[in-house]
Amino acid sequence: MHALIYDPGLTLGVVPDPVPRPSQALVKVTAIALNFGEIAFRPPNARPGHVSGWDAAGVVVRAAADGSRPAAGTRVVTFGWSGAWAELRAVEAADLAIVPEGVDLGLTAALPVAGVTALQALRRLGPVADRRVLITGASGGVGRYAVQLAARAGAYVIASVGSPARGEGLPGLGASEVVIGPAGLRERVYGVLDNVGGRQLAEAFLLLEDDGVVQAIGMASREPTTIDFEEARVRSARGRIENFTISTPLGADLAHLVNLLATGRLDAQVGWRGPWERAAEAAAALLARRVRGKAVLDLP
């Protein structure tokens, strides 16, 4: 089968078909979504011909041998820590969700990692209705889902972005404020969903209410984080930082997001879409912050 591989750059190559385990369905992939993390932090020691990729959508061609649903012919969106960038994908039945007819599979491909991360991280903040929630890196894939989901939960959403241009459209998704970095904020916040790391994570921590919490999701800045805890004591901040990691299996959360998308209550925020022959172009655009939201590649 054909797949996207690094040889040494991102290009199409030929690799063996995957062999599903009994708990896995075999899916014919029609669309994949690229994530900043899987490109920016690609393992340097990946074996030749390794198929990367977390998010893909398509049609089941062979159901799981252990009897797990769904059946062959079912439209699905899938998640896994590798194997998405290929014509065929073996995926755990517990890490996929059924996609209704009439819903664009390419849009659902944008949901797994970014959408479920935003959903689970927001859930870990606890009840946010009528509370101030700061989202850093709000113009990216996770950020744009987080803005929508936090607003749906009743939060006062503060979207932090890198430039005015990156903030365009966020008020329409539910942001009550759009700021250029968190440093200029004066009012405290209850919760933070941080996708940037580095200096912005430190600044966000100092803004917490006494019972507040930061979910440290990503490090798009690629910078280490240094926090002045003496300054935190002066500010009387008694909040906490939690290192966020996505919880699997995520089929149930993925099904919830598909339902929101299918009923018009969630926008997939696909900012770049094209054939998978243009994967290198899409990856470069993501790394250069030229994509608002998600990048989706369609297979022939």
UniProtKB/TrEMBL annotation:
Superkingdom of origin organism: Bacteria
InterPro entries: ADH-like_N, ER, GroES-like_sf, NAD(P)-bd_dom_sf
GO molecular function: NADPH binding; oxidoreductase activity, acting on NAD(P)H
Pfam families listed in its UniProt record: ADH_N, ADH_zinc_N_2
Domain Enoyl reductase (ER): 9-297
Keywords, sorted A to Z: NADP, Oxidoreductase
PANTHER family listed in its UniProt record: QUINONE OXIDOREDUCTASE PIG3-RELATED (PTHR48106)
Protein name (database record): Alcohol dehydrogenase
Organism for this UniProt entry: Nonomuraea aridisoli
